[in-house]
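Sequence in, structure out. Go.
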Amino acid sequence: MKKILVILLSLMLLLSGCTGQKKISLEEELGNLINDAKGMRIGVSLLNHQQTFFQDLKNGMEEVSTKTSVELIAKSADRDLYKQIEDIKGFIADDLDAIILSPVDSEGIKTVVNQALEAGIIVLTVDIAVNNVEVDCHIASDNIQGGEMAGKLAVKLLKDQGNVVIIDHYGITSVDDRINGFENILNDYSTINIIAKKDSMGTKQNATEIIQELIRAKVDIDLIFAINEDTSIGAYEAIKGVRDAQDIIIIGYDGTDLQQQLINDKDNLKASVVQDAREIGRQSIINAIKLYNDVPVLNEILVDVKMMN
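Output:
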């Protein structure tokens, strides 16, 4: 049924564009929802509140909730699956109207998400999906697109040959998509080799240690694809000051101010895929409100990315 709904809504949007109908702005869309959102309570469980991406995502949520008088109960999972499970159990016990989460572990969170759905609570995921669970709406960057953009740039910077290291974050669906997109491009080049794919848990410290270990082992690295801001900065710090590593290229993800600053310095970090975290946050609240008022929404909403270089 949801697949049919996606097709119908897409056709409606296409037809409205063809007839020259004015696109409804965010402010106009919110104006229609303000009176229907008062009193709604939404529990939010994000992977963490430390990363710039999740701070921006939360800010986008708060921008909409303030205008619509929605109450947000926001929790940071602090990368701890068991904490996130307990937080969501608390949301269920408090009988909240909706839950928005970015899972710490796409597999490990399945049981409690199913419990929320069975309790009749609206569930949306942002950035990271839940494995094999059909939530009410998933909103994320187009990470396949982002990975492919990074892959095409890697091929160009490597001039079609070289050794690549991927700094991974196992168990995170959005990262899987980024890497799949990246590998889709590199797989067409037999002269480009992915020589290592290491799990960093998405942290700067782990990324630094991974690259330092590879450098100590005298592994020949030409390019590093780092899957978020923290891992790109971690890789950068591992290379900085190492004489034999100054030619290593880093391509990051997220597109933060700090990454832009390092790119502008024309050092090892050459580029980063830019996510619109704030828009993902805004869309999560807008679509939660629509679902709360029985307004059909797309099952999956992908936000475009761009390249910072």
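Check: The domain at 143-274 is CATH 3.40.50.2300 (Rossmann fold). The longest helix spans residues 2-18.
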